[in-house]
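Practice problem 4.
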């Protein structure tokens, strides 16, 4: 079941126009949200990021797009699947400019759709912490621009797609994306954190990385820990060889610990600790 503009219908009957601007021009934004049962994790952060992104994209935000309205649309879509109350799901909320104009849209009306997919566990798991086999490399075929548009979750993900194909063809679990200044910005599907001693660094948004909701949660969590120092500062490729630990974050999988970059091996102590702290926070919320 999917939700198109407030109407819930089956996957087979849902139709998206071939002239849809999200498909034709990448004129669309999306939020990927994790839900435990009918509880949307970090929903306010997702909502306010979406509103800010729509303003940057000069989309006309409908008066109906309140926090409560969109939450109800998502919850109703999840409920329509008749899943167990403890079932976790991945929610994709997409908004697009509903217009048939060419490069210049003939209207600024907004449409949306919501789709979900089941997730196995209601809490974040240790992923690869046990076997610790997760190799990464730099992606140098194309570079991210370090500007405001690069921080938005738009439908224009050609670079990420090409990087994913490169990783698969060369047997890497993920790739690190660089900006035009050759700074490490993010991974194919998540933000990057680098650990050296008690200092943890993540690239600032001005370097062109996605303004990740889970990234914000990790930064907020680290600011409350007296034994860690969190910095939002640029990461050079040379720092990768000197780091103690490197991990990738996103709102669906949580923490993914990198085991190797070239001949460099990493530990996963900090990522394990943060995973435990975050799951405790979610259980108490």
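Answer key:
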């Amino acid at each position: 079941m999917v939700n198109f503009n407030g109407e819930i219908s089956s996957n087979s009957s849902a139709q998206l126009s071939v002239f849809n601007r999200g498909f034709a021009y990448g004129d669309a934004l999306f939020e990927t949200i994790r839900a435990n049962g009918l509880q949307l994790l970090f929903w306010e952060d997702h909502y306010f990021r979406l509103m800010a992104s729509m303003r940057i994209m000069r989309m006309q935000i409908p008066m109906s797009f309140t926090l409560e309205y969109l939450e109800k649309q998502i919850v109703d879509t999840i409920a329509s699947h008749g899943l167990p109350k403890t079932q976790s799901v991945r929610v994709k909320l997409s908004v697009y400019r509903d217009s048939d104009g060419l490069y210049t849209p003939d209207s600024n009306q907004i449409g949306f759709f919501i789709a979900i997919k089941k997730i196995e566990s209601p809490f974040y798991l240790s992923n690869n912490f046990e076997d610790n086999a997760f190799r990464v490399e730099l992606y140098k075929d194309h570079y991210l621009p370090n500007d405001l548009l690069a921080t938005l979750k738009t439908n224009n993900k050609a670079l990420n797609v090409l990087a994913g194909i490169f990783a698969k063809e060369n047997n890497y679990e993920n790739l690190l994306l660089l900006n035009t200044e050759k700074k490490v910005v993010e991974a194919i599907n998540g933000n990057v954190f680098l650990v050296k001693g008690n200092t943890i660094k993540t690239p600032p948004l001005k370097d062109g990385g996605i303004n990740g909701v889970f990234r914000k949660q990790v930064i907020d969590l680290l600011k409350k820990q007296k034994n860690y120092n969190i910095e939002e500062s640029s990461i050079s490729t040379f720092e990768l060889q000197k780091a103690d630990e490197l991990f990738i974050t996103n709102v669906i999988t949580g923490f993914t610990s990198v085991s190797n970059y070239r001949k460099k091996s990493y530990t996963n102590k900090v990522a394990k600790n943060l995973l435990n702290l975050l799951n405790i926070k979610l259980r108490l919320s």
